[in-house]
Amino acid sequence: MDNRKYLPLVITLAVVLILLISLSSNIIYKVKSGERAVIFNTLTGTLDKNNIIGPGYHVKVPWSDAYIYDVTENQIEETMDVLDKNGLNINVDITVRFHPMYDSIGEIYETFRMDYVRRLVIPEVRSTVRQVMGRYTAEEIYSTKRPEVEGAIKTETDAILGAPGNNIEMRALLIRSIKLPEQIRLAIENKLKQEQEALAYQFRLDKEESEAERKRIAAEGEARANKIINNSLTDELLKMRGIEATTRLSESSNTKVIVIGSGKDGLPLILGGN
């Protein structure tokens, strides 16, 4: 049997297979968990930004490029020098956690390509930190209003990054540390210490005044009670109570001598008794 007539077919199939293998990397691509992709058509120069591709294996035409984005939570840590309300230099460490909005990968790529962290997130975070801290004094930032400052930075940064066209969702913003010039830091800490001591002293004064007021009120109440009792103790009432007491004693089994009218003010006088 002459197999040479099948040789052109075998060669053709081999060439097709080689072409398919060589092109497989250009037509088959994988999107991992935590990733999203968009397709750019190099022939037409258009980006299909409305078609966001999720995890899995996908097929594309060889003349298209797949741009794959990591959409898991990202984190940056920034150390910067800022000026407070009075122009005092402050060194601050900031941590920001964020991720691109899953359904807006196309818009992010169209505006920032793959470098949205360097071109968008970092500059906006640094700018907002400087603006917010410039509204407060070093003492407020360092002590009394630190949570308020942190909240303002987070709110304003979130509004900018999440605005249409930016499409970044911020998850958290934390002020890790605030460093002041040593002389300023010691002055602030000394002032805070003195304020605490003054509050403690005022608390003791208030407590002593409250105790003195309590004693005064108790004494006035006792004096009024004694006055009421004294006013109610007439001679007739005392004689009547004395007669009642004498009567009760005379009824007891103990031996006693009762002299009627021999006591002070004519009250009975009780002598002896077992």
Q: Per CATH, what is the topology of the largest domain?
A: Tetrahydropterin Synthase, Chain A
CATH class of the largest domain: Alpha Beta
Annotated CATH homologous superfamily of the largest domain: Band 7 domain
Rough shape? Answer: elongated
What is the arithmetic mean of pLDDT? 79
Low-confidence residue ranges = none
Reading the helices and strands in chain order gives HEEEEEEEHHHHEHHEE
Biggest sheet statistics: 3 strands, antiparallel
Number of strands: 10
Number of H- or I-type helical stretches: 7
Report helical residue fraction.
Answer: 40-55%
Q: Judging by the overall fold, what is the CATH architecture of the largest domain? A: 2-Layer Sandwich
Nearest-angstrom radius of gyration? 47 Å
User: Numbering strands along the chain, what is their spatial order in the largest sheet?
Assistant: 3-2-5
- How many discrete structural domains? 4
Estimate the strand proportion: 15-25%
- Structural class call reads alpha+beta
User: What is the CA–CA distance across the termini?
Assistant: 154 Å
Any overview of this molecule?
The radius of gyration is 47 Å and the shape is elongated. The protein has 4 domains: 67 residues, no CATH class; 107 residues, Band 7 domain (Tetrahydropterin Synthase, Chain A); 40 residues; 35 residues, no CATH class. The protein is built from 7 helices and 10 strands. With 274 residues, the protein is an alpha+beta fold. The chain is 50% helix and 23% strand.
